[in-house]
Amino acid sequence: MNVLVVGAGGREHALAYAFAKSASVTRVYAAPGNDGMENYAECVNIAETDQESLVAFAKEKKVELTVIGPEAPLLDGLSDRFEREGLRVFGPSEKAAMIEGSKSYAKEVMERYNIPTGAYASFSKYEEAVAYVRSQGAPIVIKADGLAAGKGVTVAMTEAEAVQALEEVLKDHKFGEAGAEVVIEEFLEGEELSLMAFVHGETVVPMVAAQDHKRAYDNDEGPNTGGMGAYSPVPQFTQKDIDEAVEKVIQPAASGLVQEGAPFTGVLYAGLMMTSGGPKVIEFNARFGDPEAQVVLPRLESDLAELLVTLLDGGTPEPVWSEDAVVGVVAASKGYPGSYEKNRPIHHVPESPLLFFAGVEKKNGGYVNSGGRVLLLSEKAATLGEAKAQVYEKMKELDTGNLFYRTDIGFRALQQ
């Protein structure tokens, strides 16, 4: 079959890689893709927001399966449009994607269906939000309600930090419309876990777990980013822990969205805090995590396209996962997640089948950066320690004149 991946980042590159090794797939297209993805997909110059052209392309090329990578086109109703045109698509409807699009809506769903999460309150007025922070104290978590590319969250360790975050969101409008409202949440203690599942209605097919590193610098210091690296598996947690998270979080969320009249089809991502009282939801996403996709998909041994078609056709696929470990490290533009210079050359890029490009363009025979997160290099090995050693040995080849990366991805697992 012909497959279309919508999106342009590292997650979409990982999807193209997974489809390219699927025996059932004849051709992989990526719209718009990026200049580094050409080893796995034919990139077509159609923006992820151009619904008319995407539909026309899918029909012209007899695309039998479309997978929508990023959240923005999902919340713009791209999946609904494909459905109306009779095209098979894997991605939630606009209504179902609101589980990611509005943090306050996600919290309401969690309340209604008894899904464990931290206490919270929502505010659109700065003074009321500040008064709430003063009444609760710190540490406390401030989140822009809407989409902010992974950067709308402040884990404030002091009241002063929390008030500054509220000022940036509600008074300075740092995140525009996405910050018209804030959700203020209880600070949860524990270790984070990313758990994703293929979902169609009430059918839930869990993936192997991963852990993302959100802070920009080593030792989990610096500002939050979209993710600076990830690894899978996460040996700190047992299969029993993961089964509990599926049972208490993923399944009730899928069933709850059916009850809401917004049945979910796609990848449901739960960002969890594994507390002493069990798993609690930090956030839901309506698509593959980035960078989690780049370490989870290389462990998938089943044919991804067949798996998704089986699910869409009402079956319950049973994916086979490699026992091997994968560690992935992001190289980002210097200055990210703040301002950074674009069009800076990237030299000595390591070679690997698990090299996933994100913010790059080809110019004058080489790559230049076009985004904050530039690439992610993953390595797969029998153990996390070996995978980490291999990936960092290869990262030494990269010229970091214009880039930086964390040197401690996977440190929590390897401290055990």
TrEMBL record:
InterPro entries associated with the record: ATP-grasp, ATP_grasp_subdomain_1, PreATP-grasp_dom_sf, PRibGlycinamid_synth_ATP-grasp, PRibGlycinamide_synth, PRibGlycinamide_synth_C-dom, PRibGlycinamide_synth_C_sf, PRibGlycinamide_synth_CS
Family: Belongs to the GARS family.
This protein's record includes keyword ATP-binding: yes
EC number annotated for this UniProt entry: 6.3.4.13
Organism: Marinococcus luteus
GO molecular function: ATP binding; metal ion binding; phosphoribosylamine-glycine ligase activity
Protein name from the UniProt record: Phosphoribosylamine--glycine ligase
Residue ranges annotated for the ATP-grasp domain, each copy included: 107-313
Cofactor dependence: Mg(2+); Mn(2+)
Biochemical pathway: Purine metabolism; IMP biosynthesis via de novo pathway; N(1)-(5-phospho-D-ribosyl)glycinamide from 5-phospho-alpha-D-ribose 1-diphosphate: step 2/2
Reaction equation(s) it catalyzes: 5-phospho-beta-D-ribosylamine + glycine + ATP = N(1)-(5-phospho-beta-D-ribosyl)glycinamide + ADP + phosphate + H(+)
